[in-house]
Amino acid sequence: MLSSAASVVASIPSPSISSFQLGPLTIHFYALCIIAGIIAAVLLTNHRLTKRGAEPWVVIDISLIAVPLAIIVARLYHVFTHAGFYFGEGREWWNPFVQDAIWNVWDGGIAIYGSLIGGAIGAWLGCKWTGIRVWTFADALAPGLLLAQALGRFGNWFNQELYGLPTDLPWGLQIDYPNAAWPVGLPEGTLFHPTFLYEVIWNLLGVLVLLYIGRKFRLQWGRLFAIYLVWYSAGRIVWESIRIDPSDIILGLRTNVWAAIIGVIVGVVIFFVQKRRHPGLEPSPYKPGREWTPKGTVQSQDADYVDVSEPPIDEVTEGTATSTVATK
Question: pTM for this structure?
Fold first, then answer.
C-alpha cells in the first residue's frame, strides 16, 4: 500500500467540492454531468436519426417522455436494491433535508439498469407518439447512450462514491478522509480503484466500436442496440465485481452483477432473434402510414432503407398486370 505522501504524487485526486452556489440555488456537479450526458446523447441520436430519414429533432419529442421516466425508474431501482440504506432503523427516507431521503437524487444513487427499463418504456411511448420504429430509434440511440453514460460517470468522481477495492497502482483514486463510505479498518491515505474512470474509458471505446460496426455491417432492426447491451453489460460485470459500496447480495453476487449478466443475455437474444425475423433492411425509419416527408419534396427514398426481403411495389404491380393479361 502506498503511503499518504506518496499517494499525492502517484494517484488520481478527487475534486474538493461537489457543488457550488448560484444565488439561492445549489448546483451539483453530479447533476451537471447527467445533463451533459443527456445533451450529448440527444445531439448524436438526432444526427443519426436525421441521416436515416427521420424528421430533424424528433428525438426531442421522444426524449420528453423517455428521459423523465428513465430518471424516475433509475432512482426507484437504486432505492429498492439498497432498501436497508433508506428504510433501515433510524433512516428518515421521507425527509428531503437528510441524505437518506429517497428524493435526493442530487446526492447520487440512480441505477443505470433502472434507467434502461424506464427509458425503454418512455421510448416505446414516444415512438408510438411520433411514428418512429422503436428498433430504429434504439439503434440510433445506442452510441449516444454509451456516450451519455461515460459523461454521467464523472458525477461519481465529484461525489467521491462507487469506487473500487484498495490498490497501490499509480492511478489509484484519492478519497477524502474521513468519508461516510470509507471502509472500516483502512488507514488514511489508502487509494482505491477508480471504477468510474474504467467505465468512462470502456464506454468511450464502445462508442467508437458501435459507430464502426453499425456502419460497416449496416446493423438495423435493433441489432446495434443488442451489441450495446452486450458491450456495456460485459464491462459492468467487471467494474461491479471490484466495487466496495454497499449492495444487496444474491447467490454470492451483487445485484448489479446479476443485472449485467441478464443484460448480456438479453442483448444476445435480441441480436439473433431480430437477425432471423428481419433478414432485410428497414424500409423506413417510420411505421407504415406515419412517414414524414420534408417540405417541397415529392418523393425521397434512402437506399439504406430498401428491405430486400420484400419485392418493390412496382415489381408486384407489373407482375400482377402481366398475369392478368396472360389469363385473358
Answer: 0.83
